[in-house]
């Protein structure tokens, strides 16, 4: 076994922006940064347009003791139009969620900070 | 000539080099460990007798009776109006915002070696950062969401700017968690006696009287816990456990999850203990464990508040499930056949699926273990929030003017840096046997440079030193070096390696990996049909990099989620997902040295470091270090020095593709070593 080596090289700015010769590297360079590797977070919407509750963005909401109420409220909201919402659609679900959140005190509040 | 170059780069900017140009964020992550053979447990260590044919009986449901108090506080009309407003807010924002955010999210996580953390790209702190990528990212570690003026912080995603935090349910008066939590810290100073050191505390002096209380408390609840059954049981209450609970509840809406943790704290985010709490904390930080993120928002290290966790006795009757937490309780055995776990006090809890997420604990040093109690009072093995409190308090009140940190690990080095950064006038010493800081992960030239940088800021680094003895003298302790010299200090902080909390797995007859330590899992993080493991206790099969065990925060998050998902999928007999997303980690232990790394970051591998030319008027050096596999030479790890942008994803791609690339200077063009020229012509 040969002794391992730690090489150090420098690349000048000009060289850095010069053309890439390697095909594989060029292909990566052409890729949109968002597509270079799949995200681990699935995002908020399923392919069919419904809410994806596995989105990390709602992770702690669905896991909370009010997760069920949260799902109901959001699903309802997603299915309703702006107008229906204004006319009180989903009010019940939203209230149920709020009520649950207050009863269980399951979320951090800014009050914590003031204390 | 120059013009042409600029013109060309401007052109590239637009069409050609998407990757190198976008500097968005960065991440943090994982770290080393090689493949290893599996080993079978020694039969002697198993106490099978504990596993009887306990019948599990579901707890009797107790109907929920709302108490007056529950409602009283928000009956008023004003509150009602507030609610309505909140509801509208909620409606508008909850999802929309994160639509565009979520992409970012995963890139933000950073962490550092042992258990570190992190979400957002760590942005460089203001002072040093000017020159660096100016992205205002949130600070590294904590999960809590910034932008919400109101309540419900979405903690985990907090890193991201918007997330759903808008959903806060209204201005609720909230009790501080401590109030309702009897937090007994059962460990006393010289404890050792406690069977496993994973208990939090060897350092919290405040707890003297509590052990008793906790016993009483647990006796009381014993009866209730007997015969308890929970579909999903998680052993441990750290980052992996927490994220597993989220993933289970996300996959199965009404799942009931019971988390059993040995620590007395609510689940918390560990990386800030050696970073943000020092950098951005204030005089209350040692009490509240909070700090002001770069965004200006206060964050504490806890993922959730007390109210998030359903009381264990209420869980059986919780119609829509929830996550329960039993704190300060140790599981001593998993009985695979009868699907039960046994707690130290004899309580038996049945499960459908169980997750082992017991993590690691600081490695004890014989020399100090054998020393007198007086000496031991001056020693902190740095790992728990209580350790931060102890060290911070003693520095804040000036009882400690000279502090000595032992070890060259990332945690030790971060602490040396962080303490010096906050307490300029304190004498900070770091002692270790190796030649340089972080020499197990950094190639020698970089380790040397880092060591010089931390020395330059005022940390006294004593490398290649061996401690021969320790004794108490007057008000402080004296360390005797092997060469006979003496070193006097007020406090010793040890962060020199970790031990895996794998006793439970051993006692339960599960396979332990003899090289990495930890319990052996397959690529699905499954130990056996109903048992999973995640976080730093799991030695898992990574289809790209071989068998590994990682102690980074991001690994805890990723593997915790994956195990949680697979525990549910398993039940539905669908396909489980194999481990696929390489965790990264972030560390910083010298000014102008932001390190993010991913893959196999092991200084025993061959490396190639590609540096940008030093910039005028800037102390910031940018470089990308490639770690090459021992067999084949393809890239297995990438370390970024002051380089951000989508680089971690690019590195994930390269590692997955296992390409053998001759000219790594070419490959370095994918990483933003230089600012994109302005395309203003």
TrEMBL record, chain A:
The keyword Metal-binding does not apply. The keyword Mitochondrion applies. Residues 66-103 form the CHCH domain. This is CHCH domain-containing protein. Keywords: Disulfide bond, Mitochondrion, Oxidoreductase, Protein transport, Redox-active center, Translocation, Transport. It comes from the Eukaryota. The lineage of its organism: Eukaryota, Metazoa, Ecdysozoa, Nematoda, Chromadorea. One of its GO terms (biological process) is protein import into mitochondrial intermembrane space. GO terms for molecular function: protein-disulfide reductase activity. It is found in: Mitochondrion.
UniProtKB/TrEMBL annotation, chain B:
PANTHER family: APOPTOSIS-INDUCING FACTOR 1 (PTHR43557), APOPTOSIS-INDUCING FACTOR 1, MITOCHONDRIAL (PTHR43557:SF4). Residues 153-168 have a biased composition (Polar residues). It is found in: Mitochondrion. This is FAD/NAD(P)-binding domain-containing protein. Signal peptide: none annotated. It comes from Caenorhabditis angaria. Keywords: Apoptosis, FAD, Flavoprotein, Mitochondrion, NAD, Oxidoreductase, Transit peptide. Residues 563-619 form the Mitochondrial apoptosis-inducing factor C-terminal domain. GO terms for cellular component: mitochondrion. Residues 232-559 form the FAD/NAD(P)-binding domain. InterPro entries: AIF_C (IPR029324), FAD-oxidoreductase/Apoptosis (IPR050446), FAD/NAD-bd_sf (IPR036188), FAD/NAD-binding_dom (IPR023753), FAD/NAD-linked_Rdtase_dimer_sf (IPR016156).
